[in-house]
Amino acid sequence: MRINGKSLGYWSLLQRGSVISVRLVDLPVWGVQPVKGAPVFQERGDIWYPLSAIPGAEVRLSTADSRLDLTVPRAALLAVPGLPPLTAGGAALPAPAEAGAVRPMPMDVLVNGNKAGNWVLLEHGGKLYAPEDAFTEWRLKRSPAAIPFDYRGQRWYSLTDIPGFRAQVDPANQSIDLRFSAQEFASTRVERDTRTSKTPKVSPSIPAAWINYDLNAEFDSARGEPASRAFGGIFETGVSNDWGVLTSNFVGTNVLFSTDPAGSQWRRLETTYTRDFPAQDLTLHIGDATTRAVNGGRQVYFGGIQIGRNFGLTPNFVTQPIPVIAGVSSAPSTVDLYINDALRQTSRVPPGPFSIDNVPLVSGTGQARVVVRDLLGRETVLVQDFYTSGSLLAPGLTDWSVEAGAVRRNLGEENADYAEHFVSGLYRRGITPDTTAQANGEFGQQTRALGLSLTTTLWEQLLAEAGLARSQNTTIGSGWQAFVGVERRNIKQSFSARIEAGTRNFRELGFTELEAPPRVTASLNYNYTTQTLGNFGFAFARTLSDLVGGVNSFTISYATRLLKDSSLAVSLTRTTGFSSGTAVNMSLVIPLDRKITTSSQVTVRGGQMDAYTSAVLPLTQETGYGGRLAAGVRSREAYSEGGIYYQGSRGLATADLSVSPSQQSMRFGASGGIAVADGRFFTARRVEDSFALVEVPGYPNVGIGFQGSTLTRTDADGVAILPRLVPYTANSIQLNPRELPISAELDSIEQIVVPPARSAVKVVFPVRTGRGALVKLVLDDGEPAPAGAQVELVGDKEEFFVARHGDAFITGMKDRNVIRVKYNGQACNVEVVLPPASPDDIPRVGPLTCSGVKR
Asked: What gap in Å lies between CA 710 and CA 687, rounded to an integer?
């Protein structure tokens, strides 16, 4: 199709005799003005318009190449308002003859260069209109005062009235490129990926019990004193199921071989029942626990009940305000986000304003640099400073805790020394992205206290905290305490200052009438880091109490990197007041090959110098050996010491030796765990976190671990216990496939579990056992069985298929087997006997005849 010599591509035409007609809706796309009253007709659901009705039009049809040439005088051409005028022979076209006419225009639409699909637009009254749903799909803002135009039961809105509107028609491709100002698009939010931030479903736990132990045997020989020996340990018992976790800790001293006249002693440390409610982010403690830390206050050991918010049950949930980075793109673009000059993420955004509110978690002061790159490679750079801190809560987010019980004293010395009964509570709420408020109260038999505090960001990206507390004690009366602090942290420098002051009679829970907190505590810290010179630091602290008066401490420090990985640190500390003195410390750390690190340290204090040099081979998470050697001078006496350590899948063993002219000591230690889960007994490393009972039935000595490491191996029954899983997080448990025989079939060598805290989950890797064989099958005519025929092993759920030449590879076979062959609704049974061979060999069997199945 050509109009005035210009190709318009392929179009649908209708010929009746010598009359050629076109669909009426196509004329405006060609830029041709239809004449009112022309003899149109309807066919195939469309209204057709004869080309001969166009005044002055010349129509030439070439049947040889199916090409139609249409010549139209300039007066018959259409100009679309709001678009660059179409031309005939280079001349601008006049406006339509009838201003009130409505002209549908089916077009392939581009919006700011981005494909937006096929749409029908309207030209009416000198304006270009689009349907209502186009504004939504194109994300165009529409003024609430915009008056719609109703046409054929649909609402249309003017595009011409949108600020910055431009358009260009390409009749050859029947397309239109609409251009709008970037500000006229709805804002795009680049949000956190819900697939990773959503809390995964917690895996069901199985009943389990365990005992953790840390054993220590020590043998000492001092000059002029009889030799001594002692054996003791710390033990933890625990049970868990779907109802929660119950744990209890004990310490035993002088248990065996002791020379201490005090004899054997056992003391209970803590006994606690814990129940988590992940859906509500709540945790319940019954038994021994600690109160929540508060601004300007302290934590207290107690026995009783505690319930409160625990955001740790949703590890991916970010509680602090996240800075929002905003910008504008005029076309579909790629946005690169740099945090402190490090590329952190790349996103794609459509035209218009955009905001990034899934900035990777950072703390302190930072600078965000956003590079917006469009399809033509043009770049726009936006720079924005931000500040965020874990001390702040996101707006509307609340954190709280309530405790009731009795203060515990002498933990580790007495089994159950409980004193004052009390009720306490803490409530925190994010007011704005920059402000978090806190209230806390303690109400005991003798002591009551109420505190209020505020955390907020100030100018120059300073984080400020201030609070006031008042207490009432039945014996010594009332008192108050106040604090204020500021801090600012970024990559190059950090600064913090804090001061707390209170009256003589201020008391909190845990203090007796004879004990008192310091009257004044103040601290000041400053660090500055350069890329070439290293890190400079200064610290000051002051404490004023009624008992010892004032104590001041001043410290200056310097640290730098030497060569590639070595580091040097020097510090000078001066203390004045109740006790005075000066200390100088210098340390040098040099990493060597094979993960060995050497370090040297010299400390001069009160005219005495202590110095040592050591070499350490650290233990890794996997099994293996570690050790250390050290030699130096301590308390004017030379000494040397060393140790060797072995970490296996069932625990940790240590041996240390220390020798000096006045004393020799040997220490032996063992650490591990004993667990019972699903009716099985295991020895393993300490059960400190969640753990899994992993079954690989029938396959012993298979390595099992997660995150690329092997932590344990299956026993003779193919069962192992895997410790150190992260609770309420997706843990990828993996098998080592190289340690499985070739005949073993697994659907996957990896399974994902989300265990509750300190609980056991069961993971079964179903392995399909047996031998594999290549069986050649033929039909009664002696020709190979057809490719695609179905084969199944009788008594097995797996299905196999015949390949070319009648060969079928079948796994899970025993020495004698029956297979069933199915083809075109027919079936036959074939007995397969495997030759004696190694389980890792793949024998070839056949040809075997499948009788009764025809092609």
From this structure: 17
